[in-house]
């Protein structure tokens, strides 16, 4: 054992693992930062030791085939991690300002590795003084920027010594090459799990991934409040992953079919076939054009949201209606409802109008409901699903605002509840 490290190990052993529980929140966060900086300092020594062991071919002394194998055999048993450590040791140059910053706990290993990579990518014509200037600037930036932003800053680090036009051209080339590589690495697959769900995986370029991420997070926020009466449908609060999955489904349902490439001159639209009596009574599932079976409540919900085109049959092999135009509320009605409701009208929900649909409140369109403003309420996709699945009733109070009557399973007395969204233009 290397004796100078013994006191370090002993000093850490003095700290009990349960000691952090007795700290106040500020102290706990401070301890996390201290430990992260301590980890960085240890990593600097680990890189230096691995680098020295590789240079001296120490693996031969223990009969190992490589330095990576020797490191993996000595602790951890992970050849991949050992190889990664050696690669990092080669990137972070010994005696460099980056290595010193890592050893002082001023930057993390991830930051040090990124800086080393970017310095290596500088133009061949960069002088030693220019390289040192870039390194100094990036080490300073690392104290203020996230790792992702540090990478973006590093793409333009040559602006510390080069002409602005040259820097712009160099950065554009870096980004173009990165985009080309990203497209090569991209893939998508999905497979039927035969249990009513699909699973899949994808790798896509950063720009499109962030567009998707922003869309899903917008759909997932603001969160429905904890006093949401519909929370009773969950055995436990949905996880973040479940929330994003529901947001993804909502996103898919909002993709406009008219904007997609046509097949045989017809826009890409998913239709559902269902008997009129089943659509009204909610007793029988429908069938999508893909063959997928969908519950009657889901058919009604998706028809309201224009996610599918209902093809309703009355027991005869001829469709009675293929998406009746008067089923949908028009733009003027929509704008008036937005002004009146201010967003989802379900009690406790704070979703804005932009992600709400128009719902036939008193009687569904399938049951003969009218497409009039006085019968329209705004409701978000999540609560639209709840209303159809649980048979909530909707009435209008004397002041013209909708109130929801929960099913007896949630409130045996079925007392009306409403969304008490504050509206400055309607405040007394």
From TrEMBL:
Tell me which UniProt keywords the record has, alphabetically: Endonuclease, Hydrolase, Nuclease
GO function term, MF aspect, one: endonuclease activity
InterPro entries, alphabetically?
DUF222 (IPR003870), HNH_nuc (IPR003615)
- All copies of the HNH nuclease domain together span 332-385
**Which domain of life does the protein's organism represent?**
Bacteria
The answer on whether this UniProt entry bears the keyword Hydrolase reads yes
CDD domains tied to this protein: HNHc
The segments labelled Disordered in the record are 406-428
- Name it: HNH endonuclease
Instruction: Tell me the organism.
Output: Aeromicrobium endophyticum
């Amino acid at each position: 054992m290397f004796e100078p490290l013994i006191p370090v190990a002993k000093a850490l052993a003095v700290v009990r693992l349960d000691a952090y529980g007795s700290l106040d929140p500020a102290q706990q966060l401070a301890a996390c930062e201290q430990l992260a900086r301590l980890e960085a300092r240890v990593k600097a020594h680990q890189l230096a030791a691995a680098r020295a062991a590789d240079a001296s071919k120490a693996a031969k002394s223990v009969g190992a085939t490589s330095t990576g194998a020797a490191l993996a055999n000595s602790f951890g048993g992970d050849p991949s991690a050992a190889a990664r450590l050696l690669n990092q040791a080669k990137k972070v140059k010994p005696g460099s300002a980056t290595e010193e910053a890592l050893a002082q706990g001023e930057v993390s290993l991830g930051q040090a590795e990124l800086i080393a990579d970017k310095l290596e990518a500088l133009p061949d014509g960069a002088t030693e003084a220019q390289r040192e200037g870039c390194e100094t600037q990036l080490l300073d930036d690392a104290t203020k920027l996230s790792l992702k932003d540090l990478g973006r800053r590093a793409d333009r680090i040559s602006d510390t010594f080069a002409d602005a036009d040259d820097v712009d051209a160099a950065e554009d080339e870096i980004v173009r090459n990165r985009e080309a590589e990203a497209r090569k690495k991209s893939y998508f697959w999905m497979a039927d799990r035969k249990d009513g769900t699909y699973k899949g995986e994808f790798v896509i370029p950063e720009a499109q991934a962030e567009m998707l991420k922003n869309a899903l997070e917008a759909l997932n926020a603001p969160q429905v409040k904890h006093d949401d009466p519909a929370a009773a449908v969950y055995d436990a609060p949905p996880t973040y992953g479940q929330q994003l999955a529901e947001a993804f489904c909502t996103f898919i349902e909002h993709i406009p079919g008219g904007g997609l490439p046509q097949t045989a001159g017809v826009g890409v639209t998913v239709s559902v076939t269902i008997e009129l009596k089943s659509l009204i009574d909610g007793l029988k599932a429908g069938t999508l054009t893909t063959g997928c079976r969908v519950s009657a409540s889901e058919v009604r919900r998706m028809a309201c949201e224009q996610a599918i085109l209902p093809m309703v049959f009355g027991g005869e092999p001829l469709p009675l209606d293929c998406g009746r135009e008067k089923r949908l509320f028009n733009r003027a009605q929509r704008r008036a409802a937005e002004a009146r409701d201010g967003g989802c009208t379900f009690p406790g929900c704070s979703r804005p109008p932009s992600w709400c649909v128009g719902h036939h409140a008193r009687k569904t369109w399938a049951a003969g409901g009218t497409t009039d403003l006085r019968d329209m309420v705004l409701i978000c996709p999540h609560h639209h699903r709840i209303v159809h699945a649980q048979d909530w009733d909707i009435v209008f109070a004397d002041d013209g605002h909708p109130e929801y009557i929960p099913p007896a399973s949630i409130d045996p007395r079925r007392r009306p509840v409403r969304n008490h969204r504050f509206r400055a233009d309607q405040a007394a």
